[in-house]
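Case study 2.
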Amino acid sequence: MFRLLRYFSIASLVSLVLAAVVLGAVYRQIATRHLLELGESNNVALTQTLANSFWPQLHSFADSAGPLDVEALRRHLDIAGLRQGVVNQMRDTNMVKVKLYNLDGRTLFSTEAKQIGEYESRNAGFLSALQGYPTSELTHRNQFSAFDQVLENLDVLSSYVALRHDPDAPIEGVVEVYTDVTDLLGGIEKGQRLVTVSVAAVLTLLYAILFFIVRHAD
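Prediction:
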């Protein structure tokens, strides 16, 4: 025998769960995409701030550091001063690491000293920035070496950004900026839970009203 109430209850329960999960996931996807876009814009602005503050120093350092081997590059006299200047400039911001590449993709400077001398010439983000198009990636790191410490369980937004003196000047290098977005991503997760719970509550109320109507019809 067909029981309207039984099939209505089963179908409604499945639909309620699916709707809550799907809408929560959609909210997270949209919010994360907006975070990526805003974070990239922020990293581009931070890169331009560094260029404006250290352009003569960066320009002369890049010219002298390019031909050096790895050991000589790491001992370059400008490294310590450049690092301290970057740390001071970015104090009280969410920036946690900065790397400077020349046009060949060689790491001339990094706030993490052991990365100096490495090559990123085949990295898609580097190649995109070299053409003037910033590229960003959102990742979770169990451990991350920041300016003066090792941070744990960090959500990091990294952006490759072209380095030039002003927007119309030729590209003279690429800067990779890492910013801490752990709190922002945590806010998105809380928002996702709120959306999921709210949708479930509204649909549960609707289900309860329809349940009494269908029971009477059944």
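The two ends are 12 Å apart (CA to CA).
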